[in-house]
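This section describes the prediction task in plain terms. A model, or a person checking by hand, is given the sequence of a single protein chain and must write out its three-dimensional structure as a string of tokens. No templates, partner chains or ligands are provided. The sample shown here is typical of the held-out split.
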Amino acid sequence: MTESLHKPRVSVITIFYESAAHIREAVDSVLDQDFDDFELLLVDDGSTDSSTAIAREYAASDCRVRYLEHPAHENRGMSATRNLGLKESRGEFVAFIDSDDRWQPFKLREQVSLLDRMADVDAVGGAVNYWGSHDGGSDRVVPTAHVRNRPIPPGEAPLALYPLGKADAPSMSDLMFRRKAVLRAGGFEESFRGAYEDQAFLAKFYLTSTLFIVDKLWSDYRLHPNSCMAQVGRTGKYHDARRAFLLWFEDYLQGTHYWADPRYRKALARSLRTYRSRRKRLADALRALPLAVPAVRGARSAYRRFRPVVAPGPAILMYHRIARERFDPWALAVSPGDFEEQLEWISRTRIPLPLHEFIELQKAGKLPRNAIALTFDDGYACNAATAVPLLQRFNITGTIFISPQLIERGEEFWWDDLERNVLLHERETLWLDGIEIGLGARSEADCDWLASDAPRTPRQHAYKRVWSKLYGRPPSEIQELMRVLREQTGVGKKPRDTHRPLTRGEIRSMPAAVVNFGSHALNHPSLPRLSPDEQAREIQGSVTECEAITGYRPRTFAYPYGDHDPGLEPIIEAAGFDCACKADGWFVSRKTNLFALPRIFVGNSNARQLALRLGRP
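The expected answer:
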């Protein structure tokens, strides 16, 4: 049989997008397997960095490797890209490895052996190592599934595993599937371009297939700030993505016989409860009762008159800027009009508290269920002119987290300055770190983009690529790289008035009854990526420098970029802070860790949208 006609036992599929930093390690971990009857499909989702060239290089040098891409090198999202690899695969078994993960050298051999011995099993998997040691962090091995070493029949796993159940779900980079079982499940849902694309597929797969999980460790799941889920968490979109998945799965189940099983309806209702208004939850419950419709109609007017204001729990809101901005890739700006409506609603339906009072009541176990605190990250100057007068009018106190050395420098925050240095000048190429970055010609569409969406123009691709190169670097390196960019573009250091940070004078002039100031570390670095000594300097040094600017010692802290690590908590507490806020999460409960406080990312939403998220239609 010729090589071209040989069908390998395993098709390994690696999808990638802008993965130059890690793809070689992932591919090498496949090529170094002690089992060699496989093909490796490298499937490009429209990359603009050097990962395309790297993948083509592997395909040219190893007959087991094939390079695939969408027509016209289009970016179509993770699910469509997995489906392309699945369509082109030839193996009896299929295994996926994400371009930033890594396999143990015996993975394929041991998993093929398991599937060969268990003809009735459709997929096997093991524990997952959440791999932080690659970047100076720590590793955490997590067993997956609710049971191990026995077949999990169709229909059992969705109720037991995340996202509906409590047990940890297996990783897509760890599982090996029978290809026919993947096709039977219908492949990947292409409406899920990023977050939850794996869970949407697995939810379908669990309904039709038998799973077998062991305690063996076969894969390393890389933890890093540019991963899909890290970006979703950083932008505060995690719960939006989870809600979208749950609503999709609810609709999907209604077309299957599983919808007749009350366990599924109950599990979905429980998972969706947080995201549905109180009125919707009551209506759903009543519709399940015989003769409920007449009772609902008779009680509706009384319910509307007397219903209490009930939220799922106390909440801390996270804002950044109160301003109107066309280019706002991270959705940081809330328009003044929407902010005014939000404050009116908050003052009418919630108990707004300064953050330090919120924390004191939380410690004492006396925090009202509908308490709310408002926080603002980074210290944008526009908040002095827009947010502060509105907070004063509604008698609400907000907390602004500042990085003292950024305040003293008075330059634009680097993520904002990238707009001028990537999108708004005439050059068509830039050089950074010895790499040429193509920009193409300027376009009106360049500024119409959210970073959670796939880039559509060359300059959007370039912005995301440059952002990824700067994010997580030490502050001194970021300053130097921005200097290099400015030298090429001719953009000066003087900030735009719309994007500059607060000045010391503006901070001192703000009324204490309206604004308190907390620390956002000394230079706004990604703290988990620093050495322990650098972490201590950033946290402890921010105390004295914040005090020098504001006139008082800060009591509250917010993790820059929302990058939290449990190892930072004792350093923050030892520095004298009462609490520390993350950039993701949900409501505050009695068991909430004061040094890992969840916050609800507001984004550019109106009052009604905010009310829906907080539990009131």
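For orientation: The chain has four domains: 3-226, 240-306, 315-409+499-614, 414-489.
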